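Notes continue from the previous slide.

Worked example: a multi-chain complex. Inputs as given:
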Amino acid sequence: MITLALAGKPNCGKSTFFKAATLANVEIANYPFTTINPNFGVAYVRTPCACKGLNISCTHCVDGVRFVPVNLIDVAGLVPDAHKGKGLGNQFLDHLRQADAILHLVDASGGTDAEGNPVDIGSHNPMEDVKFLGYEMTMWVYGILDKHWSRISRQSQGKGSAIQQGIAEVFAGLGITYEDIRDAELKFKIDFIHATMEDLIPLCAEIVSISKPMVVIGNKFDLAPEELRKRLAEAKVTFTSAASELALRNAAAAHVIKYLPGDPEFKVVDERSLSAPQKAGLTKIAGLMRENNGTGVQQAVNHAVFNLLDMIVVYPVEDETHFSNKQGDVLPDAYLMKKGSTPHDLAFQVHTEIGKGFLYAIDARSKMRIKENHILKDGDVIKIVSAAK
Ligand SMILES: Nc1nc2c(ncn2[C@@H]2O[C@H](COP(=O)(O)OP(=O)(O)OP(=O)(O)O)[C@@H](O)[C@H]2O)c(=O)[nH]1
Ligand SMILES: [Mg+2]
């Protein structure tokens, strides 16, 4: 399953975002380093369910909206110079090893200083926070490489290719390959035989950018002064109000409103049941959603999965006539797959044995047999025919 991680300075709203996206009960507070141990949970990407276009009814979506699970991790806050031991240091960045992409939250309201302490709204420039995480992650990778460097150089016996191989092995867990290291060598003109650790910093930055695609999100949009919104928007930062999303999800769970994560608006179920403060709170959130086309939380998760990670949603079925499994359950599974995946890749994702025994696939919409190397499209409903039972 895809894993996304929330990272950023303390107090920018990571745990609030996490709680809104997963409805897990985690601690949220207006001071830095509330979270120390990471929180792990399940969030969802939102996609139109394939049943919509097929005119069939399915029990795995809500009014044609399908939610596909992804893992979400909320880690401790990181401050500038964490790699030198500031704040809690950067040890916990190890929790990001398993993340496929990172949602970097900044406090768009300018109400959190460089160390994560609450300050007056607008008194800190969040643009300063946009760049630092990439640098701290680079220095985290650098620290890992530093630990292995003398062994790698010693064992390479002066052979550049052995050094590249050694570095690739250290970062294999991050999905880094020998070719990635060779490309970086050419790109940054690194002489591995004579390189000092300093010379390897651009390589470390490259390892971060290959292995951890990142999107910057301006949270606390609800409090953000116009000027800061403008500056962040110019830097292509998208906005969220995690606190608003959390309020909406709680209100929806209590049946006070009708709202699906990612909806641009919500509907109050019964106006008369609301207290005056509830009404005022919801009115404020409604205004904010009109400005931002929603609270931004679901949009951020979707952006990470569909744009940063280039995923599509594919539905494997066993019975192509009824778009179901053998028990008649319609569209029982929705899989996130990398763009460019083939039916054979899907077969492996369903089960290794199904993949090994793969014979051919059928496009359930057209009922046509499709080639093994056919490229799957978002929303495809596919029957795999495999020699495996
Ligand atoms: N107004 C507003 N407040 C928010 C929003 N998101 C979070 N907060 C508040 O910001 C404070 C910090 O929130 P947390 O979610 O604990 O922040 P964090 O990034 O997890 O902090 P650490 O665990 O200390 O790193 C809390 O008082 C939240 O209620 C938001 O979108 N709008
Ligand atoms: Mg936290």
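Summary box: Residues 312-386 form a domain with the Ubiquitin-like (UB roll) fold (CATH 3.10.20.30). Residues 127-156 form the longest helix (30 residues).
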